[in-house]
Request: fold
Amino acid sequence: EDQVTQSPEALRLQEGESSSLNCSYTVSGLRGLFWYRQDPGKGPEFLFTLYSAGEEKEKERLKATLTKKESFLHITAPKPEDSATYLCAVGTDYKLSFGAGTTVTVRA
Amino acid sequence: NAGVTQTPKFQVLKTGQSMTLQCAQDMNHEYMSWYRQDPGMGLRLIHYSVGAGITDQGEVPNGYNVSRSTTEDFPLRLLSAAPSQTSVYFCASSEPGSPGYTFGSGTRLTVV
Reply:
C-alpha cells in the first residue's frame, strides 16, 4: 500500500521568506508524484507531476523536485496569495494516495 | 467549459437515510474518481472509473455505490448514511496521459 507523509503540518512565513515543504513516500513502484494546491472551501488544483528521480518542475514562485524517497516543494520569495494547503500524492492518473497536506500562511 | 460540477454543495442527512451525490464533467474525460476529505487525514479514494461501464473500489468503499452509464456522469450513492460518513466529498476527472485531476468544488455532507 502506498503511503505519503507531509511535513510540516503548518508553516507560517513572512512575505519574501523562502522555504520548503517535504513529502516522503513509500511505494512498490513510483508511477507519478503529484502536487496540488487547495484553497479553503475549494477543490484541489493541480500544480505538478514528477515521474523520475532528479526531475524538477517550476511554476512562478514554486519549484518541485523529486528523489527516490521524497519530494520537495520550494516556495521562493512567497507572497500572501501563496497562502494555501499544499497536497502531495502518489499514484496514477485515476488512483492517488494523498498526504494530509501542509498549510502555508504567508504574512505581508 | 464548466469543468467538474458537483451537486449539492451542502447536505444534512439523518442516520439511515440514503442519497446520491451528483458529479458531471464536460471535458470528455475518460477517468473519474470520488474522494472524501477528513481533517488531518488527507483525501481518500472511495471509488473510481476508467470508462463508461467500468468501476472499481478504492481505499474506503464500504457504504458507497457508484455506476458510470455515461462518460459525463459519475454519481455516488450512500446506501444508509452513518455519522462516520460526515465528510467533504470531491469528484475528479482526468484524461489518460494528461497529468493531474480536475476536481469539483466539493459536497459538504453532515450525517446526524
Notes: Chain A touches chain B through 23 residues (CB under 8 Å). The mean pLDDT of chain A is 95. The CA atoms of residues 35 and 88 of chain A lie 5 Å apart. DSSP finds no helices and eleven strands in chain A.
